[in-house]
Design brief:
alpha/beta; 9-stranded mixed sheet; 10 helices; globular
Length: 318
């Protein structure tokens, strides 16, 4: 039985190579292959929560492209608008982890397959049975023309009265904060739900007080401004009121993908009519569960895992 609610997102995906040893990459000989990408993580998170998730993308017509395609399809993501293209290798990233636990990410996404996506490829048909569109700043950072694609997506969504959520998801290895800020300020007035980290919004608009954030949301007609603040929980500004919810206490193993999981959890709560406090609590729960598992999307929970966690119910294991 298909879910009542459908979401659409678009963006690049990558093969992530995680080192099996610590230290500079030049001394690392073994890697574990994973699949990553902010928008794909979001789609997988939504699918695991029981929603219909459509991911629009382009993949290289190579073995890594097939890995991503098969993996996402196996997670229940609608891949009907994903195409393979020749001459554009599937994107990669390598992670480096030092002995003290700190790390770096090295992107290899020059001539990414997503570069072949054009505004005219976005059609009304893609929005059939879609209840929300989700975009991120990662897609916008990959190539300047992607802003036109995003605008096309938001234009069709507005025509069809489909709400748009947006996560800035700043990647300063892909563009400068000045470039990001310029593009985000174009996008914000078309966004209904802005899901952002406190540190990100501080970078973008230079302020983070509740009064300033409220003024920013009102000035850009953002209906719901959702602030993610890690172990401090989350808060939401809507209808001139701030709402806050504390974080769940967990011992984090890997925070990668937690923001994408939070986004999926919040959108689940929004589409399913949960109260504002319930939405924040549910999203906090999803984000917390993601941090307890190593990997970009391995920790994204299924719906039946989230409710017992946030309600502190004992789970029978055997």
């Amino acid at each position: 039985m298909s879910s009542k609610f459908g979401v659409l997102t678009l963006g690049d995906a990558m093969i992530t190579l995680n080192p099996e040893e610590t230290g500079p990459l030049r001394f690392v000989n073994r890697f574990e292959r994973k699949v990553g990408g902010a928008e794909l993580n979001f789609a997988i998170g939504c699918a695991r929560l029981g929603m219909r998730a459509k991911w629009l993308s382009r993949l290289g017509k190579d073995e890594f492209g097939r890995v991503i395609y098969n993996f996402a399809r196996g997670e229940g993501v609608d891949m009907s608008d994903v195409a393979f293209v020749n001459g554009y290798p599937t994107s990669l990233n390598f992670k480096e982890i030092r002995e003290d636990g700190s790390g770096k990410t090295f992107y290899y996404r020059y001539q990414s397959p997503i570069l072949t996506l054009k505004p005219e490829d976005i059609t009304d048909r893609m929005f059939e049975d879609i209840d929300l569109v989700h975009l991120t700043g990662v897609f916008l950072a990959i190539d300047p023309k992607n802003i036109d694609i995003a605008k096309r997506v938001m234009e069709i969504a507005k025509q069809k009265d489909i709400p748009v959520s947006f996560d800035p998801n700043i990647r300063l290895k892909l563009w400068s904060i000045e470039e990001a800020r310029s593009v985000y300020l174009e996008v914000f007035p078309s966004v209904d739900i802005l899901l952002t980290g406190l540190d990100e919004i501080r970078l973008i608009i230079g302020i983070d007080s509740e009064e300033s954030l409220a003024e920013f949301a009102n000035g850009n007609n953002i209906d719901q401004l959702v602030i993610k603040d890690g172990e401090n929980g989350s808060k939401l500004y809507t209808n001139s009121v701030w709402h806050k919810k504390e974080a769940f206490p967990v011992t984090p193993i890997d925070t990668v993908g937690a923001g994408d999981g939070f986004d999926a959890g919040y959108i689940y709560g929004y589409l399913h009519g949960l109260s504002i406090e319930e939405r924040l609590e549910f999203a906090n729960g999803v984000g917390a569960l993601v941090t307890t598992v190593s990997g970009d999307n391995e920790g994204l929970p299924y719906l039946e895992e989230v409710w017992p966690f946030i309600q502190n119910e004992a789970v029978i294991e055997r």
